[in-house]
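Reading group handout, session on sequence-to-structure problems. Before we discuss, look at one worked example. The prompt was deliberately terse, the way you'd type it at a terminal:

> structure EfeO-type cupredoxin-like domain-containing protein

The input record follows.
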Amino acid sequence: MNWSRSNLYLLGAVMLVAALGIYLFLTTARPAESPALQDNVSVVLTDAGFLPHDVAVKVGGTVTFSTARGEPFWPASDPHPVHTIYPEFDPQKPIKAGESWSFTFRREGTFKYHDHLGAQNWGTVLVGADTGMRDVSSAKTCDVISDLGQQRTCIGFLLQNTVNKKGLAAGVALFKELAPLHPEDCHQYAHDVGEYAYAAHVRGQKIDIGQEASYCGYGFWHGFMTKMAAESGLASAKTLCISLEGPTERTTLEIRDNCFHGVGIGLIADPPQKEIWGKAQAVISPALRYCDTMDVEDFFMRDCYSGVFHAIINFMASKQYGFVLDAKDPLAFCFAQEEKYRSSCNYQVASKMAGATDRNVSKMYAVLRRIRNEGEFKVAFSLAITGFVNQQMSTKELGDFIGQCARVSSSVSDYCVSGVAQSLFSNGTPGKEFRKPLDVCGSGSLTEAQRGACYKEVVILSRKFYSRETLDEMCAAIPDPYRALCDVQTFPE
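And the output record:
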Protein backbone atom coordinates (compact mmCIF):
# COMPACT_ATOMS: atom_id res chain seq x y z
CA MET A 1 0.00 0.00 0.00
CA ASN A 2 1.36 3.43 -0.95
CA TRP A 3 0.91 5.81 2.00
CA SER A 4 1.44 9.53 1.57
CA ARG A 5 3.40 11.46 4.20
CA SER A 6 0.20 13.23 5.30
CA ASN A 7 -1.52 9.88 5.86
CA LEU A 8 1.39 8.69 7.95
CA TYR A 9 1.17 11.82 10.09
CA LEU A 10 -2.58 11.23 10.51
CA LEU A 11 -2.03 7.63 11.57
CA GLY A 12 0.63 8.70 14.04
CA ALA A 13 -1.71 11.27 15.54
CA VAL A 14 -4.50 8.71 15.91
CA MET A 15 -2.15 6.25 17.59
CA LEU A 16 -0.89 8.99 19.92
CA VAL A 17 -4.42 9.94 20.96
CA ALA A 18 -5.28 6.27 21.52
CA ALA A 19 -2.17 5.76 23.63
CA LEU A 20 -2.98 8.88 25.63
CA GLY A 21 -6.51 7.64 26.21
CA ILE A 22 -5.25 4.28 27.46
CA TYR A 23 -2.78 6.04 29.78
CA LEU A 24 -5.46 8.32 31.22
CA PHE A 25 -7.78 5.36 31.77
CA LEU A 26 -5.09 3.46 33.61
CA THR A 27 -4.00 6.36 35.78
CA THR A 28 -7.14 8.40 36.40
CA ALA A 29 -10.22 6.46 35.48
CA ARG A 30 -9.61 3.99 38.29
CA PRO A 31 -8.94 4.81 41.96
CA ALA A 32 -5.35 4.42 43.16
CA GLU A 33 -4.71 0.96 44.45
CA SER A 34 -3.55 0.32 47.99
CA PRO A 35 0.02 -0.92 48.31
CA ALA A 36 0.35 -4.69 48.14
CA LEU A 37 0.37 -6.20 51.60
CA GLN A 38 3.34 -8.44 52.29
CA ASP A 39 3.93 -11.25 54.78
CA ASN A 40 7.55 -10.23 55.34
CA VAL A 41 9.38 -7.00 54.56
CA SER A 42 12.97 -5.85 55.15
CA VAL A 43 13.84 -2.23 55.97
CA VAL A 44 17.41 -0.91 56.05
CA LEU A 45 18.59 2.25 57.81
CA THR A 46 20.93 4.08 55.41
CA ASP A 47 22.53 7.53 55.30
CA ALA A 48 19.39 8.60 53.42
CA GLY A 49 17.10 7.27 56.20
CA PHE A 50 14.97 4.13 56.40
CA LEU A 51 14.56 2.43 52.99
CA PRO A 52 11.96 1.73 51.88
CA HIS A 53 10.46 4.65 53.78
CA ASP A 54 6.92 3.26 53.71
CA VAL A 55 6.08 -0.44 53.83
CA ALA A 56 2.82 -2.40 53.97
CA VAL A 57 2.23 -5.77 55.64
CA LYS A 58 -0.72 -7.97 56.44
CA VAL A 59 -1.98 -8.19 60.01
CA GLY A 60 0.46 -10.72 61.46
CA GLY A 61 3.13 -9.67 58.96
CA THR A 62 6.73 -9.17 60.00
CA VAL A 63 9.16 -6.31 59.33
CA THR A 64 12.88 -6.97 59.77
CA PHE A 65 15.06 -3.94 60.47
CA SER A 66 18.80 -3.71 59.86
CA THR A 67 21.34 -0.95 59.24
CA ALA A 68 23.95 -0.21 56.60
CA ARG A 69 25.51 2.61 58.62
CA GLY A 70 27.93 0.53 60.66
CA GLU A 71 26.62 1.76 64.01
CA PRO A 72 23.87 0.78 66.48
CA PHE A 73 20.28 1.81 65.79
CA TRP A 74 16.95 1.47 67.59
CA PRO A 75 13.70 1.34 65.56
CA ALA A 76 10.66 2.11 67.70
CA SER A 77 7.11 3.41 67.59
CA ASP A 78 6.34 7.11 67.76
CA PRO A 79 6.25 9.40 69.63
CA HIS A 80 9.89 9.99 70.47
CA PRO A 81 11.13 9.32 73.11
CA VAL A 82 8.32 7.42 74.89
CA HIS A 83 7.05 5.07 72.13
CA THR A 84 3.53 4.94 73.57
CA ILE A 85 1.43 4.64 70.40
CA TYR A 86 2.55 1.02 69.86
CA PRO A 87 4.69 0.25 72.94
CA GLU A 88 5.39 -3.36 71.94
CA PHE A 89 7.03 -2.04 68.76
CA ASP A 90 10.27 -1.31 70.62
CA PRO A 91 13.30 -3.60 71.11
CA GLN A 92 13.98 -1.80 74.43
CA LYS A 93 17.69 -1.49 73.55
CA PRO A 94 19.98 -0.55 70.66
CA ILE A 95 20.49 -3.10 67.88
CA LYS A 96 24.16 -3.64 67.05
CA ALA A 97 25.47 -2.99 63.54
CA GLY A 98 25.51 -6.28 61.65
CA GLU A 99 22.48 -7.56 63.57
CA SER A 100 18.78 -7.24 62.77
CA TRP A 101 15.54 -7.00 64.73
CA SER A 102 12.16 -8.32 63.58
CA PHE A 103 8.72 -7.32 64.80
CA THR A 104 5.39 -8.95 63.99
CA PHE A 105 2.54 -6.42 63.69
CA ARG A 106 -0.69 -7.76 65.16
CA ARG A 107 -2.57 -4.45 65.25
CA GLU A 108 -4.17 -2.93 62.15
CA GLY A 109 -3.36 0.70 61.42
CA THR A 110 -0.73 3.13 60.17
CA PHE A 111 2.27 3.34 62.49
CA LYS A 112 5.00 5.94 62.34
CA TYR A 113 8.35 4.92 63.77
CA HIS A 114 11.80 6.43 64.15
CA ASP A 115 15.36 5.60 65.10
CA HIS A 116 15.47 6.27 68.83
CA LEU A 117 19.19 7.03 68.47
CA GLY A 118 18.56 9.53 65.68
CA ALA A 119 14.90 10.53 65.60
CA GLN A 120 15.27 12.56 62.39
CA ASN A 121 15.18 9.19 60.61
CA TRP A 122 11.62 7.87 60.44
CA GLY A 123 9.24 5.78 58.36
CA THR A 124 5.78 4.26 58.35
CA VAL A 125 4.39 0.74 58.49
CA LEU A 126 0.90 0.21 57.10
CA VAL A 127 -0.72 -2.86 58.66
CA GLY A 128 -3.85 -4.14 56.93
CA ALA A 129 -6.26 -1.89 55.02
CA ASP A 130 -4.94 1.47 53.83
CA THR A 131 -7.12 4.28 55.21
CA GLY A 132 -5.13 6.95 53.37
CA MET A 133 -3.98 8.43 56.67
CA ARG A 134 -0.58 9.49 55.33
CA ASP A 135 -2.30 11.81 52.84
CA VAL A 136 -4.93 13.13 55.25
CA SER A 137 -6.10 16.68 54.47
CA SER A 138 -9.13 17.16 56.74
CA ALA A 139 -9.59 17.05 60.50
CA LYS A 140 -12.86 15.20 59.95
CA THR A 141 -10.87 12.17 58.81
CA CYS A 142 -9.10 12.05 62.18
CA ASP A 143 -12.20 12.85 64.26
CA VAL A 144 -13.92 9.57 63.41
CA ILE A 145 -10.95 7.39 64.47
CA SER A 146 -11.77 5.73 67.79
CA ASP A 147 -8.29 4.38 68.56
CA LEU A 148 -6.50 7.18 70.43
CA GLY A 149 -3.03 6.26 69.16
CA GLN A 150 -4.21 6.15 65.55
CA GLN A 151 -6.04 9.45 66.02
CA ARG A 152 -2.85 11.07 67.30
CA THR A 153 -0.92 9.68 64.34
CA CYS A 154 -3.59 11.01 61.98
CA ILE A 155 -3.43 14.50 63.51
CA GLY A 156 0.36 14.44 63.26
CA PHE A 157 0.15 13.68 59.53
CA LEU A 158 -2.56 16.30 59.11
CA LEU A 159 -0.47 19.05 60.70
CA GLN A 160 2.60 18.06 58.70
CA ASN A 161 0.70 17.87 55.40
CA THR A 162 -1.00 21.20 56.03
CA VAL A 163 2.27 23.05 56.70
CA ASN A 164 4.01 21.38 53.76
CA LYS A 165 1.23 21.86 51.20
CA LYS A 166 -0.64 24.97 52.33
CA GLY A 167 2.01 26.88 54.24
CA LEU A 168 2.74 27.74 57.86
CA ALA A 169 -0.21 30.12 58.28
CA ALA A 170 -2.63 27.32 57.38
CA GLY A 171 -0.81 24.92 59.72
CA VAL A 172 -1.03 27.38 62.61
CA ALA A 173 -4.73 28.00 61.94
CA LEU A 174 -5.34 24.24 62.03
CA PHE A 175 -3.37 23.91 65.27
CA LYS A 176 -5.45 26.70 66.82
CA GLU A 177 -8.59 24.79 65.84
CA LEU A 178 -7.32 21.46 67.21
CA ALA A 179 -5.74 22.65 70.47
CA PRO A 180 -8.94 23.09 72.54
CA LEU A 181 -10.22 19.71 71.33
CA HIS A 182 -7.11 17.83 72.48
CA PRO A 183 -5.85 19.63 75.62
CA GLU A 184 -3.74 16.70 76.87
CA ASP A 185 -1.81 16.59 73.56
CA CYS A 186 -1.80 20.34 73.02
CA HIS A 187 1.86 20.95 73.90
CA GLN A 188 3.01 18.02 71.76
CA TYR A 189 1.02 19.24 68.74
CA ALA A 190 2.45 22.75 69.23
CA HIS A 191 5.91 21.19 69.42
CA ASP A 192 5.24 19.27 66.19
CA VAL A 193 4.06 22.40 64.37
CA GLY A 194 7.25 24.12 65.51
CA GLU A 195 9.38 21.34 64.00
CA TYR A 196 7.41 21.41 60.73
CA ALA A 197 7.72 25.20 60.71
CA TYR A 198 11.49 24.93 61.06
CA ALA A 199 11.60 22.59 58.06
CA ALA A 200 9.48 25.16 56.14
CA HIS A 201 11.88 27.90 57.27
CA VAL A 202 14.80 25.91 55.86
CA ARG A 203 12.90 25.69 52.56
CA GLY A 204 12.59 29.47 52.52
CA GLN A 205 9.10 30.05 53.97
CA LYS A 206 8.67 33.19 56.07
CA ILE A 207 8.05 32.48 59.76
CA ASP A 208 5.23 34.84 60.67
CA ILE A 209 3.33 33.56 63.70
CA GLY A 210 1.48 35.64 66.24
CA GLN A 211 -0.05 34.93 69.63
CA GLU A 212 -0.57 31.29 68.63
CA ALA A 213 3.11 30.69 69.38
CA SER A 214 2.28 31.17 73.07
CA TYR A 215 -0.40 28.49 73.16
CA CYS A 216 0.07 25.28 75.12
CA GLY A 217 3.12 26.35 77.09
CA TYR A 218 4.98 27.82 74.08
CA GLY A 219 5.37 24.36 72.57
CA PHE A 220 5.81 25.94 69.13
CA TRP A 221 9.08 27.64 70.03
CA HIS A 222 10.30 24.61 71.94
CA GLY A 223 9.91 22.50 68.81
CA PHE A 224 11.23 25.13 66.40
CA MET A 225 14.29 26.16 68.38
CA THR A 226 15.22 22.63 69.41
CA LYS A 227 15.59 21.76 65.72
CA MET A 228 17.27 25.04 64.82
CA ALA A 229 19.84 24.94 67.62
CA ALA A 230 20.71 21.34 66.79
CA GLU A 231 20.91 21.77 63.01
CA SER A 232 21.78 25.41 62.28
CA GLY A 233 23.92 26.29 65.28
CA LEU A 234 23.81 28.61 68.24
CA ALA A 235 24.55 31.85 66.37
CA SER A 236 21.54 31.46 64.05
CA ALA A 237 19.29 30.48 66.95
CA LYS A 238 20.36 33.46 69.06
CA THR A 239 19.82 35.88 66.16
CA LEU A 240 16.31 34.59 65.57
CA CYS A 241 15.35 34.70 69.27
CA ILE A 242 16.43 38.33 69.58
CA SER A 243 14.49 39.27 66.44
CA LEU A 244 11.14 37.96 67.69
CA GLU A 245 8.45 40.52 68.49
CA GLY A 246 5.09 40.19 70.22
CA PRO A 247 2.09 42.57 70.31
CA THR A 248 3.24 44.02 73.66
CA GLU A 249 6.52 44.42 75.50
CA ARG A 250 5.48 41.70 77.96
CA THR A 251 4.61 39.17 75.26
CA THR A 252 7.82 39.95 73.38
CA LEU A 253 9.80 39.10 76.50
CA GLU A 254 7.80 35.91 77.05
CA ILE A 255 8.30 34.78 73.44
CA ARG A 256 12.05 35.38 73.62
CA ASP A 257 12.23 33.59 76.99
CA ASN A 258 10.73 30.47 75.48
CA CYS A 259 12.84 30.78 72.37
CA PHE A 260 16.07 30.72 74.40
CA HIS A 261 14.66 27.85 76.47
CA GLY A 262 14.26 25.97 73.18
CA VAL A 263 17.88 26.76 72.32
CA GLY A 264 19.00 25.07 75.54
CA ILE A 265 16.95 21.97 74.77
CA GLY A 266 18.44 21.84 71.29
CA LEU A 267 21.98 21.87 72.68
CA ILE A 268 21.44 18.42 74.22
CA ALA A 269 21.70 15.72 71.58
CA ASP A 270 18.93 13.14 71.69
CA PRO A 271 20.40 10.65 72.11
CA PRO A 272 23.76 11.79 73.53
CA GLN A 273 26.92 10.10 72.29
CA LYS A 274 26.91 6.50 73.46
CA GLU A 275 30.18 6.81 75.42
CA ILE A 276 28.63 9.38 77.81
CA TRP A 277 25.34 7.64 78.49
CA GLY A 278 24.66 7.75 82.21
CA LYS A 279 27.21 10.56 82.69
CA ALA A 280 24.92 13.55 83.11
CA GLN A 281 27.61 16.11 83.86
CA ALA A 282 29.55 15.15 80.73
CA VAL A 283 26.38 15.75 78.70
CA ILE A 284 25.37 19.12 80.12
CA SER A 285 28.72 20.85 80.76
CA PRO A 286 29.48 21.70 77.10
CA ALA A 287 25.90 22.87 76.58
CA LEU A 288 25.98 25.15 79.63
CA ARG A 289 29.25 26.62 78.41
CA TYR A 290 27.58 27.35 75.07
CA CYS A 291 24.82 29.20 76.93
CA ASP A 292 27.50 31.21 78.75
CA THR A 293 29.04 32.35 75.46
CA MET A 294 25.87 34.09 74.31
CA ASP A 295 26.11 37.85 74.66
CA VAL A 296 22.55 38.32 75.98
CA GLU A 297 20.82 39.51 79.15
CA ASP A 298 21.19 37.30 82.23
CA PHE A 299 17.53 36.22 82.17
CA PHE A 300 17.88 34.93 78.61
CA MET A 301 21.02 33.09 79.70
CA ARG A 302 19.01 31.43 82.47
CA ASP A 303 16.37 30.45 79.91
CA CYS A 304 19.10 28.66 77.99
CA TYR A 305 20.29 26.92 81.19
CA SER A 306 16.71 25.82 81.92
CA GLY A 307 16.45 24.26 78.45
CA VAL A 308 19.65 22.27 79.03
CA PHE A 309 18.35 20.97 82.37
CA HIS A 310 14.91 20.37 80.87
CA ALA A 311 16.46 17.89 78.43
CA ILE A 312 18.69 16.02 80.90
CA ILE A 313 16.03 15.84 83.64
CA ASN A 314 13.58 14.44 81.08
CA PHE A 315 16.12 11.70 80.32
CA MET A 316 16.43 11.00 84.05
CA ALA A 317 12.69 10.95 84.72
CA SER A 318 12.18 8.58 81.77
CA LYS A 319 15.21 6.46 82.74
CA GLN A 320 16.68 6.88 79.27
CA TYR A 321 20.27 6.33 78.16
CA GLY A 322 21.35 5.26 81.64
CA PHE A 323 20.20 8.47 83.37
CA VAL A 324 18.09 8.31 86.55
CA LEU A 325 16.93 10.71 89.25
CA ASP A 326 18.27 9.94 92.71
CA ALA A 327 15.20 8.44 94.37
CA LYS A 328 16.37 9.35 97.88
CA ASP A 329 17.49 12.88 97.02
CA PRO A 330 16.15 14.11 93.64
CA LEU A 331 17.81 17.50 94.12
CA ALA A 332 21.30 16.06 94.71
CA PHE A 333 22.23 16.51 91.03
CA CYS A 334 21.19 20.19 91.14
CA PHE A 335 22.97 20.94 94.40
CA ALA A 336 26.19 19.66 92.80
CA GLN A 337 25.95 22.35 90.07
CA GLU A 338 27.61 25.76 90.09
CA GLU A 339 25.45 28.27 91.91
CA LYS A 340 24.48 30.20 88.76
CA TYR A 341 22.99 27.02 87.26
CA ARG A 342 21.38 25.62 90.40
CA SER A 343 17.97 27.28 90.36
CA SER A 344 17.40 26.37 86.70
CA CYS A 345 18.12 22.76 87.57
CA ASN A 346 15.93 22.84 90.69
CA TYR A 347 12.95 24.08 88.70
CA GLN A 348 13.23 21.29 86.13
CA VAL A 349 13.48 18.62 88.85
CA ALA A 350 10.49 20.22 90.60
CA SER A 351 8.40 19.77 87.45
CA LYS A 352 8.97 15.98 87.73
CA MET A 353 8.25 15.68 91.44
CA ALA A 354 4.73 14.26 91.08
CA GLY A 355 6.18 11.15 89.47
CA ALA A 356 9.30 11.07 91.65
CA THR A 357 7.23 11.08 94.87
CA ASP A 358 4.35 8.85 93.74
CA ARG A 359 2.07 11.92 93.75
CA ASN A 360 2.60 12.49 97.47
CA VAL A 361 2.44 16.23 98.18
CA SER A 362 3.99 15.84 101.66
CA LYS A 363 7.01 14.01 100.23
CA MET A 364 7.32 16.62 97.50
CA TYR A 365 7.26 19.42 100.07
CA ALA A 366 9.96 17.71 102.15
CA VAL A 367 12.26 17.35 99.13
CA LEU A 368 11.82 20.92 97.85
CA ARG A 369 12.12 22.48 101.30
CA ARG A 370 15.88 21.96 100.92
CA ILE A 371 15.77 25.05 98.68
CA ARG A 372 16.51 27.79 101.20
CA ASN A 373 15.82 30.85 99.06
CA GLU A 374 12.10 31.48 99.61
CA GLY A 375 11.54 33.01 96.17
CA GLU A 376 13.14 30.01 94.46
CA PHE A 377 11.22 27.62 96.71
CA LYS A 378 7.91 29.27 95.73
CA VAL A 379 8.66 28.90 92.02
CA ALA A 380 9.80 25.29 92.46
CA PHE A 381 6.80 24.35 94.61
CA SER A 382 4.32 25.93 92.17
CA LEU A 383 5.99 24.12 89.26
CA ALA A 384 5.80 20.85 91.15
CA ILE A 385 2.07 21.33 91.73
CA THR A 386 1.46 21.57 87.97
CA GLY A 387 2.35 17.87 87.74
CA PHE A 388 -0.41 16.90 90.18
CA VAL A 389 -3.34 18.41 88.25
CA ASN A 390 -4.82 18.12 84.77
CA GLN A 391 -7.63 19.54 82.65
CA GLN A 392 -9.86 16.52 83.26
CA MET A 393 -10.20 17.22 87.00
CA SER A 394 -13.50 18.86 87.94
CA THR A 395 -13.64 22.28 89.59
CA LYS A 396 -14.57 20.60 92.88
CA GLU A 397 -11.67 18.12 92.61
CA LEU A 398 -9.25 20.97 91.95
CA GLY A 399 -10.60 22.99 94.87
CA ASP A 400 -10.33 19.97 97.15
CA PHE A 401 -6.76 19.39 95.98
CA ILE A 402 -5.80 22.96 96.86
CA GLY A 403 -7.19 22.38 100.37
CA GLN A 404 -5.25 19.11 100.71
CA CYS A 405 -2.08 20.79 99.46
CA ALA A 406 -2.44 23.73 101.85
CA ARG A 407 -2.72 21.39 104.84
CA VAL A 408 0.89 20.27 104.24
CA SER A 409 2.05 23.64 105.57
CA SER A 410 0.29 26.94 106.08
CA SER A 411 3.26 28.64 104.41
CA VAL A 412 2.52 27.08 101.01
CA SER A 413 -1.21 27.80 100.69
CA ASP A 414 -0.72 30.53 98.07
CA TYR A 415 1.86 28.41 96.24
CA CYS A 416 -0.67 25.58 95.92
CA VAL A 417 -3.12 28.00 94.33
CA SER A 418 -0.47 29.39 91.98
CA GLY A 419 0.54 25.94 90.79
CA VAL A 420 -3.04 24.89 90.01
CA ALA A 421 -3.79 28.15 88.19
CA GLN A 422 -0.56 27.93 86.17
CA SER A 423 -1.24 24.35 85.11
CA LEU A 424 -4.81 25.04 84.00
CA PHE A 425 -3.81 28.25 82.24
CA SER A 426 -0.90 26.66 80.36
CA ASN A 427 -3.12 23.92 78.93
CA GLY A 428 -6.34 25.85 78.53
CA THR A 429 -8.36 26.66 75.42
CA PRO A 430 -6.19 28.96 73.24
CA GLY A 431 -7.20 32.59 73.69
CA LYS A 432 -9.51 31.67 76.57
CA GLU A 433 -7.01 30.04 78.94
CA PHE A 434 -8.34 32.05 81.88
CA ARG A 435 -11.78 30.42 81.99
CA LYS A 436 -11.12 27.21 83.92
CA PRO A 437 -8.72 28.85 86.43
CA LEU A 438 -11.40 31.45 87.15
CA ASP A 439 -13.91 28.66 87.77
CA VAL A 440 -11.53 27.21 90.34
CA CYS A 441 -10.98 30.63 91.93
CA GLY A 442 -14.73 30.83 92.52
CA SER A 443 -14.91 27.36 94.06
CA GLY A 444 -16.54 27.10 97.46
CA SER A 445 -13.66 24.85 98.55
CA LEU A 446 -11.23 27.79 98.73
CA THR A 447 -10.72 30.09 101.70
CA GLU A 448 -11.05 33.83 101.14
CA ALA A 449 -7.26 34.19 101.20
CA GLN A 450 -6.84 31.38 98.65
CA ARG A 451 -9.52 32.88 96.43
CA GLY A 452 -7.75 36.23 96.39
CA ALA A 453 -4.41 34.56 95.61
CA CYS A 454 -6.07 32.60 92.82
CA TYR A 455 -7.59 35.62 91.08
CA LYS A 456 -4.33 37.51 91.45
CA GLU A 457 -2.39 34.66 89.77
CA VAL A 458 -4.82 34.58 86.83
CA VAL A 459 -4.47 38.35 86.37
CA ILE A 460 -0.67 38.07 86.41
CA LEU A 461 -0.68 35.21 83.88
CA SER A 462 -3.20 36.95 81.63
CA ARG A 463 -1.11 40.10 81.44
CA LYS A 464 1.77 38.09 80.00
CA PHE A 465 -0.22 36.87 77.02
CA TYR A 466 -3.31 38.90 76.23
CA SER A 467 -4.22 42.05 74.39
CA ARG A 468 -6.11 44.74 76.27
CA GLU A 469 -9.38 43.55 74.72
CA THR A 470 -8.94 40.01 76.07
CA LEU A 471 -7.78 41.38 79.43
CA ASP A 472 -10.99 43.39 79.65
CA GLU A 473 -12.99 40.23 78.94
CA MET A 474 -11.07 38.30 81.60
CA CYS A 475 -11.44 41.05 84.21
CA ALA A 476 -15.18 41.34 83.56
CA ALA A 477 -15.48 37.67 84.56
CA ILE A 478 -13.90 38.32 87.99
CA PRO A 479 -16.49 39.16 90.67
CA ASP A 480 -16.24 42.06 93.09
CA PRO A 481 -14.29 42.76 95.23
CA TYR A 482 -11.54 40.79 93.46
CA ARG A 483 -11.98 42.70 90.21
CA ALA A 484 -9.98 45.47 91.86
CA LEU A 485 -6.92 43.27 91.27
CA CYS A 486 -7.19 44.31 87.63
CA ASP A 487 -7.55 47.99 88.46
CA VAL A 488 -4.28 48.27 90.37
CA GLN A 489 -2.31 47.17 87.30
CA THR A 490 -1.52 49.38 84.31
CA PHE A 491 -2.86 47.70 81.22
CA PRO A 492 -0.39 47.50 78.32
CA GLU A 493 -1.15 49.76 75.40
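Points for discussion. First: DSSP finds 21 helices and seven strands in the chain. Second: The mean pLDDT is 86.
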